[in-house]
Design brief:
500 residues; alpha+beta; Beta-lactamase; Lipocalin; eight-stranded antiparallel barrel; 15 helices; 22 strands; 32% helix
Length: 500
């Protein structure tokens, strides 16, 4: 009797869960929820698509392409999809693996004999898999591409001068330049540049006619969203900046109408129209967790509380309320993206918006997950807005100490040229009675004294504001180096005059 009762209870649980999950979603209520969230988060424009099985069940745009202009966002508006591009690069590698032209564990140095890292062991052993899983041992090297258009060959050459942040393969550290290397691997092995490969092998078969692989190809096209940021508590348009230097890490522009096709492709395990573009074993490899990722990557995880958070090949993998989740975000200078998939329920959501780090994207993802899992309604937008408001308040509370000590040296002693072998030149000059800094061709703005040798940059957008700049005296009345962006730039000795 007990055994029969247990079986009956188990059957009821399974059936109840199945019935709950199969309830038709209230898309009218979801539409109203999205519209309110867009207003609450002050997002100029947003587009969202929801898919289930092989159907687009919801696709809509909200708001405007650019504040102060009439153009409306639709499901066909192109936005920067940012780092959600990485899954496409991983899929491109997978296609070459299927063709026998490449293996995930091929060594990069065997493909590019000139490749070097500062660690000889990492140089010798780094594989294509390592490129795709952020476990090279390097911290961020975004300074190599974020403030200029450095050729890839020069970018790769400079990697040998970058000090590792951790030992090889020991920790997850997000790495755009390694994904740029992966894109060059695709080009070298296939004989087709990464943009052309992506267009031919992914966009073409999937019918993604609104997707463009390079920022340079987007400029001047119609129905393209303008990036925005919040500057002095006001939402303002900001310039579109190119990510083409690391294209395979995050340069694609697309619409949610097109990205719905990409989601359906992934939910169908690499198939489109009955045709298998990725072999089952290769697709499984792409989605298998490879390294534990830091939960601090996304503050939203403090609310969703996954039991695990990992990175596969181009995807974050976590759990939510008993479901496996494949997801990734993209954040590129005034644009945001997020893809979230529930593979066991064959449901997914893609969010694109034109406001820098607008974290309503996570709220909408979890709202969709709750709808398809049959969970009780939860106001994710309100909860996340409160979470980020508290984080913002803590950040704003960090102010200059009221009795902060002034710089210990005359300002002209800080002026000079500072260099790093990997990242180039930081120039500090005296201007209008204060200091000003320039990194390469980028004006970082005025340096506001903070305390002793510490300053804060207060440059106008798009220069990064409130960046800490800390000088290191040499103990003899001069300055030996300066630390900014987490990098120490060494001072270049001033040239002596002839005969001096």
């Amino acid at each position: 009797m007990i055994r029969r009762l247990n079986a009956l209870v188990a059957l009821l649980v399974v059936c109840g869960g199945s019935l709950r999950a199969q309830a038709a979603p209230d898309l009218r209520a979801f539409d109203a929820y999205v519209e309110q969230a867009v207003r609450d988060w002050r997002v100029p424009g947003l587009a969202i698509a929801v898919v289930q099985d092989d159907s687009i069940v919801f696709a809509k745009g909200y708001g405007v392409l650019e504040l102060g202009k009439p153009g409306r966002v639709t499901e066909h508006t192109r936005f920067a999809i940012g780092s959600t591009t990485k899954a496409m690069t991983a899929a491109a590698v997978g296609m070459l693996v299927d063709e026998g032209k490449l293996r995930f564990d091929d060594r990069v140095i065997d493909i590019f004999p000139e490749f070097r890292l500062s660690d000889p062991y990492a140089t010798r052993e780094l594989t294509v898999r390592d490129l795709l899983t952020h476990r090279s041992g390097l911290g961020s090297t975004d300074l190599l591409w974020a403030f200029g258009e450095m050729p890839f060959a020069e970018m790769m050459r400079r990697l040998r001068y970058v000090r590792p942040a951790s030992s090889f393969r020991s920790q997850f550290a997000y790495q755009n330049v390694m994904y740029a290397v992966a894109g060059e691997v695709v080009a070298k092995v296939s004989g087709m540049p990464w943009p052309e490969f992506t267009r031919t092998r992914i966009f073409g078969p999937l019918g993604m006619t609104e997707s463009i692989p390079l920022v340079a190809e987007v400029r001047g096209l119609p129905n393209v969203a303008t990036p925005h940021d919040i500057i002095r508590d006001t939402v303002r348009p900001v310039p579109m900046r190119s990510t083409d230097g690391v294209a395979s890490a995050g340069s694609v522009y697309s619409s949610v109408a097109d990205m719905a096709k990409w989601m359906r492709f992934i939910l169908d395990s690499g198939r489109v129209g009955g045709k298998q573009l990725l072999k089952p074993a290769t697709f499984s490899e792409l989605m298998t967790p490879q390294i534990r990722a830091a939960a601090s990557t996304y503050p939203a995880l403090t609310l969703s509380k996954p039991h695990g958070f990992s990175y596969s090949l181009g995807w974050f993998v976590q759990d939510y309320q008993g479901d496996v989740v494949w997801m990734h975000t993209g954040s590129i200078n005034g644009m945001i993206a997020l893809v979230g998939l529930l593979p066991d329920r064959r449901a997914g959501v893609f969010v694109l918006a034109n406001l820098d780090h607008a974290e309503l994207r996570h709220a909408l993802m979890y709202r969709v997950f709750d709808i398809y899992a049959g969970n009780p309604p939860r106001d994710w937008s309100a909860e996340l807005k409160d979470l980020f408001a508290r984080r913002g308040a803590r950040a704003r509370a960090v102010t200059r100490p009221p009795n902060a000590a002034p710089p210990s040296l005359p300002l002209d002693r800080y002026a000079g040229t500072y260099v790093d072998s990997a990242y180039g030149t930081l120039a500090v000059t005296v201007a209008n009675g204060g200091l000003r800094a320039r990194f390469g061709t980028e004006d970082l703005g005025a340096l506001e004294p903070w305390e002793y040798e510490s300053f804060r940059s207060v440059g106008p957008p798009p220069a990064p504001g409130r960046t800490a700049v800390t000088f290191v005296p040499d103990g003899a009345g001069a300055v030996a180096s300066v630390r900014v962006f987490g990098i120490t730039f060494q001072r270049v000795a001033a040239a002596r005059p002839p005969g001096g």
